[in-house]
Amino acid sequence: MFQLHAFVVPETGKEHVMLTLGDLDNGEPVLARVHSECLTGDGLFSQRCDCGAQLETALEMIAAEGRGALLYLRQEGRGIGLLNKIRAYNLQDQGADTVEANEQLGFPADLRRYDLCKPMLDHFGIERLRLMTNNPRKVDALRELGIDVTERIPLQVNRNRYNEGYLRTKAIKLGHLFKGYLVEEE
Ligand SMILES: Nc1nc2c(ncn2[C@@H]2O[C@H](COP(=O)(O)OP(=O)(O)OP(=O)(O)O)[C@@H](O)[C@H]2O)c(=O)[nH]1
Ligand SMILES: [Zn+2]
User: Fold this and answer.
1) Is 63 a member of any domain?
2) 160: domain CATH number?
3) pLDDT single digits (tens) 18-32
4) Ligand 2 centroid – CA 139 distance (Å)
5) In ligand 1, which atom is closest to the CA atom of 92?
6) Closest atom, ligand 1, to C-alpha of 40
7) Catalytic annotation, pick one of 50, 110, 152, 168
8) CB of 80 sitting under 6 A from ligand 1
9) Is residue 183 assigned to a domain?
10) From the CB of 133, is ligand 1 less than 6 Å away?
11) Record's InterPro entries (predicted)?
């Protein structure tokens, strides 16, 4: 049984969520997922990304350990918002990849920030994480905030014919670490 905690950032009014399970402030590194909002994948079962399956698997892994945390950050579409992500999907349907589509809309490839993770984790006395992610830039961003990421745990799920190109672009252009793509697992 997870506990849900809601946070609000006063400057933006954005509401974020943290799901927790077990005793988190005993000093042992916490199995954690820092997940960015994806309404289409997380809520509407879209198969063109890996978000929904990653969310489900992360929660299953935390449940299996009986201890962990999931930070659900409301930065849809790598920070460009839902409408712009749908515009980006349209451009991708016309041949652009996920990075080119962002650029054609006038955005950088990834606008996300992870600053708010620090006060959310501090609230529970969590200092060290075993982070479930394929994204080394996420690990770096958390470390720069002073969060001790003791381990990166791969979260490679839901590769299918609809998201093959998307996952490949993430490996080649965004540095994600996937087995079986250009960039091998370290
Ligand atoms: N702009 C844009 N955002 C996308 C696209 N596909 C998924 N997203 C968003 O990307 C975010 C998820 O990012 P990912 O790169 O899949 O994953 P990550 O969180 O950086 O890395 P992992 O921890 O390995 O999952 C969510 O906010 C999605 O809404 C896309 O084609 N364009
Ligand atoms: Zn997604």
Assistant:
1) yes
2) 3.40.50.10990
3) 999 999 989 899 999
4) 19
5) 31
6) 29
7) 110
8) yes
9) no
10) yes
11) GTP_cyclohydro_II (IPR032677), RibA (IPR000926), RibA-like_sf (IPR036144)
> Which residue spans within the chain are E strands per DSSP?
3-8, 15-21, 30-36, 68-73, 128-132, 148-153
Report the alpha-carbon distance of residue 149 to residue 42 in Å, rounded: 25
Query: Domain containing 150: what range?
Result: 3-75+112-174
Q: Please identify which residue in the block is written with the tokens 């992500």.
A: 85
Q: Which pTM does this prediction carry? A: 0.92
The predicted-structure confidence for 114-158, as pLDDT tens digits, reads as follows: 999 999 999 999 999 999 999 999 999 999 999 999 999 999 887
Q: Is 161 a catalytic residue?
A: no
In a domain, 44, yes or no: yes
Question: Are the C-beta atoms of residues 177 and 154 closer than 8 Å to each other?
Answer: yes
CA 91 to chain CA mean position, Å: 23
Domain count within the chain: 1
Length of the chain: 186
User: Does 36 sit in the ligand 1 pocket, CB within 6 Å?
Assistant: yes
